């Protein structure tokens, strides 16, 4: 079957792109390897998505999915392993079968880099977080630690300064700051910078209680209720290498209309360079990608017909 548009990734960006494309009258399908809603299903309570004071990630994922089903958008469970993006007809090679379309929307997402230390996996969602914007309010008036040496760690600390009672930042000796300077933290009395501190272990019972770290060759500990990991994100773009233009960190480079370097290929959500990795941003980009891909397909089919 030849689709007008195939969307790879069934998270907020991909589902929104599908809805906008279907409303534009296009024959569209969404390929998702995990489950509808993508990484939303792995998030706990969400407090910063407009229209919902509080909602569980899995519940919001279901609402996205149900909305897509109202438009009879098919969800294909498959893992894309290769792509042929050149030419009028694109080929999407999955583990189960190969799909074809005039246009492709990439909504593969990204995942937070992990510390790979003892206790991290155990306490995910129970004190270990990879998003201060998402989870900061759960630690109101509590002490937390942030692990990271770049702008994201500093940004998280400044954001949390008005929420948490005490914030510790564990960094390498050499900071990698572009948008901040080290002395910007001096105005925040509840932020303490621990340079040369290496996170080693997270301990607790049902919730995080302590972060064990090494500094100056000695093991030390912090009594904290939360550990925020801010060491960057890794885009899920390995299958796109040498197929479209990517940034030095592997994020997709695209213009303000979500167009990539390859004709007929669009990108939206967390895989895009510059995206702030929030649900609301993904939804907005998905709407634009779905709209622009639909325009592209209309013009392409007309040219082929003539």
Folded structure, characterized:
By secondary structure, this protein is α/β, with parallel strands linked by helices. Helix content is 22%, strand content 29%. The longest helix is centred in the C-terminal third of the chain and has 27 residues, at 279-305. The model has no long low-confidence stretch (mean pLDDT 94).
Supply the key terms.
306 residues; FAD/NAD(P)-binding domain; 2 domains; 7-stranded mixed sheet; 5 helices
Please tally the β strands and state the result: 19
Would you tell me the overall average pLDDT? Answer: 94
Continuous helix count = 5
Over all CA atoms, what is the radius of gyration?
21 Å
The CATH class of the largest domain turns out to be Alpha Beta
Principal-axis shape: elongated
Class from secondary-structure proportions: alpha/beta
- Name the quaternary structure: single chain
Task: Itemize the secondary structure elements and their pairings.
Blueprint (H helix, E strand, L loop, with lengths): L1 E7 L3 H12 L4 E5 L12 E2 L8 E2 H14 L4 E3 L2 E5 L5 E5 L3 E9 L3 E3 L15 E2 L2 H4 L7 E5 L3 H10 L5 E6 L19 E5 L2 E7 L3 E8 L2 E6 L2 E4 L3 E3 L29 E3 L11 H27 L1
Parallel strand pairs: 1-2, 1-8, 2-5, 8-19, 10-17, 11-12, 11-17, 12-13
Antiparallel strand pairs: 3-4, 6-7, 7-8, 9-18, 14-15, 15-16
Helix pairs in contact: 1-2, 1-5
Short account of what is shown:
The chain is of the alpha/beta class. Helices cover 22% and strands 29% of the residues. The chain is built from five helices and 19 strands.
